[in-house]
Amino acid sequence: MMREEEIGRITPQKAMVLLRKDGIDLDLEQTKIVLDFLYEMAEIVVDTYLDQQKKVYLPTHE
After folding, report:
1. CA dist list (Å): 32 to 5, 45, 51, 56, 57
2. DSSP assignments along 5-37, one per residue
């Protein structure tokens, strides 16, 4: 049985530093919004991938 583990999130402050290195200057509130969006997108991508894998490996009943 798989258990869900919470992966440590990057802090908004750390994200601000990383974004600034790439020339993206956001304030703390904007950075929080971007991080929330990216985590949601990552969750959607992983869920979609896992759903596709289940379909590929399900045995057929013929």
Report:
1. 22, 20, 29, 36, 38
2. -PPPPPPHHHHHHHHHHTT----HHHHHHHHHH
Residues 6+ apart with CB under 8 A from 10: 18, 35
25 and 31 Cβ atoms separated by less than 8 Å: no
Q: Find the Cα–Cα–Cα–Cα dihedral 32, 6, 50, 38, rounded to 10°.
A: 10
User: Model-level pTM?
Assistant: 0.68
pLDDT digits (tens, 9 = 90+) for 35-58: 999 999 999 999 999 988 887 776
